[in-house]
């Protein structure tokens, strides 16, 4: 189990892991409710995250917000506590997998990438579920003393990217929106420029993407511009 990393007094995260392609799992603590950012790669990933929260004497999340539909961010959804929240397009992808593949969904994902096979090498179940709550465009949630803004954004990674912003803490969660498209990781310059324009309109000091450590505003924008081809 990894250690939680703190960004502010109210925000911390469980770090990413390269071998099993596990993304960052964010944590936002309000006075009344707490929220996780992304549901992780599996049941075991969720359990590790929750155990780290328990060890830090932090309440387990009441809500889990999803940044996009990809497996490493959603296959833990069946094991979370509380309710999950996703954009309408993200939920449509998940429902499409469930309805289109049925009990063959596990085989589909296991054949897709070696990191998924590494995550599920222990034999734990691979389960796909859709979110409990979906929104279109944008949504704001009051956690008590903190407001969390969820909004859809254009990005070069997927067409269902959701960014999550906590204005009181000036912290922005980006999921994998800053990456190119899977599996080539090619970056569409037009889509990246649109993402940069979105990011530049937000008043943040800390940025956290799915498979990176915390960046400052300046570091993030520089990396985004450097990634353009």
Provide a descriptive summary of the structure in words.
By secondary structure, the protein is an alpha/beta fold. The protein has one domain: Ribonuclease Z/Hydroxyacylglutathione hydrolase-like (Metallo-beta-lactamase, Chain A). It is built from 7 helices and 13 strands. The strands form 2 sheets. The protein has a 7-stranded mixed sheet. The termini are far apart. The model has no long low-confidence stretch (mean pLDDT 96).
Q: What fraction of the residues are assigned to beta strands by DSSP?
A: 15-25%
Shape: globular
CATH architecture: 4-Layer Sandwich
Largest beta sheet, briefly?
7 strands, mixed
Helix content: 25-40%
- Derived from helix and strand composition plus strand pairing, the structural class reads alpha/beta
Count of extended strands: 13
Strand order of the largest sheet: 1-2-3-4-5-6-7
Mean pLDDT: 96
Can you tell me the residue ranges where pLDDT is under 50 for at least 5 consecutive residues?
none
